Amino acid sequence: MNRYFRELSVTGALVLLLAVLAIWAPHFYQPQPLLSRFTAQTPALILTIGMTLVMIVRQIDISVGAQFGVCAVVAGLISASGAPLIVALAAALAAGAIMGALNGVLIAWMGLPSIVVSLATMVTWAELLRLFQQGKFINLPANVQWFGLSQSAGQQGLIFGSVLLLAGVSWLLKNRSGGRHIYAVGSDAEAARLAGINPKLTTFTVFVIMGTLAGLAAVLNMVQSPQVDPKCGVALELRAIAAAVVGGVAVSGGRGRLWGSFAGLLLLATINPALTFLHVEAYWEKAIQGLVILLAVIADGLRSRRQTS
Amino acid sequence: MKRSQFLALLAAPAFAFLPGCGKSGDAASAPGGSVEKRLTIAFLPKSKGNRYFSTCEKGARAAAEELKVDFLFDGPTNTDPAKQNEIVENWITLGVDVIAVACENREGISGALKKAQAKGIKVVTFDSDTTPDARSFFVNEATDEGIGHALMDGAAQLCGEEGEFALICATLTAANQNQWRKQIEARLAAKYPKMKLVDSKPCDDQKDKAQQEATNLLSAYPNLKCIMAICSPAVPGAAEAVKQAGKSGAVKIIGLGLPSENRAYVKEGVTQSLILWNVEDLGYLAVQTAYAVANGTLKAGDKTMKAGRLNEVEIDGTSVLLGKPFVFTKDNIDQFQF
């Protein structure tokens, strides 16, 4: 029980919020809007998977929102030219992997602090994107939205695919050596090295995975509407980081579970509609989200104090 | 004499494009045949290669042709206040007659503009103003009141003047957004007692966030009759939400947005009307104002001004008003490319 305390407390908070909505705002559970609401979170979910890995390995990547924006525009322009979706997807994944690899090289091999490196790459990608696209929307051909399927089939596909990916990565993290290496390097890189793990390669790989997931997330976002907004990635990194922190991933590395991050994402993403349904003014949204994050950080602080004393 | 003048007038527009030929047209149309110096109007947008300003440029060129003036067009490739100053300095050296500028930085450019004025160059601003002492007139595309009333009146018309509506804005703190919201609320209180604004949501100037907010509003307020989106990414975002909810036409959308970003939704009948000033007319009026200031027909204190195809426009203090915002609908949206 104590082992899962953080994950379970977040899940508990989420259940409580859902119960409040069930009593006071049963409209919240109308199936179609619920499906749309969940689908809209799938890109953030994909980013949160990557961010959880990055934080477990004791790093941070604040450039993922900008990477997401670049990948979205790359995929959007390729789709707009009439190329099949698979080509756009491949290009977005490649663009994401390259941007992730750049972060990885600078952080893993040059030993630079990830917050500074990813701040620099964030500004670079965001500004290049602004220069290149000048804020113009990209109009997509009709067969891109929902992969050319019906709306409900597309939405169910996106949700199923994302949750499957979450489960898959979760399993790999727990049961495969590569996954255990991530925890080991995040807990103590030197000890991991002595145990025969290559911390640099592990860190680098995690950043490449993060970038690739940013590319995937951008495409999953693109297929949800007939247009690409080049500003779509702005501040997305904060949502992914917040979801992971609230879900019990330790900023100090070596600790965290994907299902915790998932619960964290759902909790934060439910606060916004909950305010609308409970007729609370929008001014409160960010304050309440901030409070939830603060509670999570305090819980982590208390736990580590208990452990050291 | 009469006959030759008539022929020359006919020929003038045809040759206006050719350097040198324009002069003969000028000379012939000037009374008594005296040769007047052609005015040079320099036109400086916030940035080039941006559809909003290239549309402005189209209108400006049309006015320059009508007025038979030389027209210079230059601007930063990306919004860059320092580059704007540099261009103004170049034009001072070149000795243009008037500069019409959309200022990226209100204070930043005023020094360069005052320097131009000291050299006898007239300055007018359009789209975004500088400090009032650095220009003679500002061509104001829309007043807060004009925008607010157009949105509220439009929404009321779509709802039959009764029922619930919700608003999506960029942020709850931006100054212009708050001014518009204030005007909308004032108009609502004064004229539409049977309408109710149920909620106002910020979308952080992002389409996807606007779509999520609209999805929530649609299910939280089942009697909602209209969504009013007052920042440009919110309009297509709200439209996509209404479409996905299967409520196209049942919940109306009115917003402040660009035709190019909303064309499909307007044609499908998801979005009913877009409010925006006519951007081409803004460029046209900027050049008309520049011309009138340069030849002395427009002076401080004037209450109105003749502006070619726009007829008579109003002047409030030193603001030349473009007039009521323009409404884009299914019927006219295809004429606008920006």
Structure description:
Chain A starts with a helix and ends with a helix. The model of chain A has no long low-confidence stretch (mean pLDDT 94). Chain A is built from twelve helices and two strands. Chain A has 309 residues and is an all-alpha fold. Helix content of chain A is 74%, strand content 1%. In chain A, 49% of the residues are buried. By secondary structure, chain B is α/β, with parallel strands linked by helices. Chain B folds into two domains: 37-142 and 279-322, Response regulator (Rossmann fold, 3-Layer(aba) Sandwich); 144-276, Response regulator (Rossmann fold, 3-Layer(aba) Sandwich). Chain B contains eleven helices and 14 strands. The A-B interface holds A 25, 27-28, 30, 32-33, 36-37, 40, 130-131, 134, 136-137, 139, 151, 221, 224-227, 229, 231-232, 234-235, 272-273, 276-277, 279, 282-283 and B 47, 49-51, 78, 172, 199-202, 204-208, 211-213, 215-220, 222, 233, 236, 240-241, 244-246, 260-261, 264.
Order of SSEs of chain B: HHEHEHEHEEHEHEHEHEHEHEEEE
Contiguous low-pLDDT stretches of chain A (5 residues minimum) are none
Residue fraction in strands of chain B: 15-25%
Strand order of the largest sheet of chain B: 2-1-3-4-5-13-12-11
pLDDT under 50 segments of chain B (min length 5)? 1-34
Q: What's the CATH first level of chain A?
A: Mainly Alpha
Tell me which oligomeric state these chains represent: heterodimer
What structural category do the secondary elements of chain A indicate?
Answer: mainly alpha
What would the principal axes of the Cα set say about the shape of chain A?
Answer: globular
How many beta-strand runs of chain A? 2
Q: Please list the strands of the largest sheet of chain A in the order they lie side by side.
A: 1-2
Radius of gyration of chain B, taken over Cα atoms and rounded to an integer in Å: 23 Å
How many discrete domains of chain A?
1
Give the name of the CATH architecture of the largest domain in chain B: 3-Layer(aba) Sandwich
Q: CATH architecture of chain A, please?
A: Orthogonal Bundle
